[in-house]
Design goal:
Helix content is about 40%, strand content about 20%. The protein contains five helices and eight strands; from the N terminus they run H-E-E-E-E-H-E-H-E-H-E-E-H. The protein has an eight-stranded mixed sheet, with helices on one face. Helix 2 (about 70-85) links the parallel strand 4 and strand 5.
Length: about 170
């Protein structure tokens, strides 16, 4: 009888602990991380800040011309950009090429890419975002919070990905 009471008490305490752990994890998941602010020069020479895109969903893609997987995903990023550029969507491709426009611009022109390309030769924005490998992509919500991060290349033009963005931007 005493054993049964101790077992029941242990069960209730363990259940309470698991629920507490679950709800504290949920609360942590709801805390949003603000995206670090940055200002970089574009290929056209204008200064572009993340805050200029407030009110839009912003896909920030860190890349370089020497990165094979980065180059592979560029055509699909162009497809995504063309499809959603007239909605509340911005795409900022941030080049980590140390020689800046001299290297990035010929690549962009040769591949007929039209989305904005920013130059981060000193890795200022990359370091603020904690980028350690390329490509790395962040999704920022209209309030300026990081809502997604992807390390590695992606095909941004798959039907599932396009549907995701259609649903996200259709709100």
């Amino acid at each position: 009888m005493i054993f049964a009471k101790k077992t029941t008490l242990f069960f209730y305490l363990a259940s309470a602990f698991i629920l507490l752990l679950f709800f504290s994890t949920l609360a942590q998941a709801e805390k949003l991380t603000p995206a670090p602010e940055f200002t970089l020069k574009s290929l056209t020479g204008e200064k572009v800040s993340l805050s200029q895109h407030r009110g839009n969903y912003v896909l920030i893609n860190f890349w370089a011309t020497w990165c094979g997987p980065c180059k592979m995903e560029m055509p699909s990023l162009e497809t995504l950009y063309q499809r959603f550029k007239l909605k509340n969507f911005s795409l900022l491709a941030i080049s980590n090429d140390m020689f800046g426009a001299k290297i990035a611009e010929p690549f962009i022109k040769a591949n007929n890419l039209s989305f904005p390309v920013l130059l981060d030769q000193q890795l200022q924005a990359s370091n603020k975002f904690g980028v350690v490998s390329l490509p790395t992509t962040f999704m920022i919500d209209p309030e300026g919070n990081i809502i997604g991060e992807l390390r590695g290349a992606e095909d941004w033009a798959t039907p599932d990905t396009l549907l995701y963005f259609e649903n996200l931007l259709g709100k």
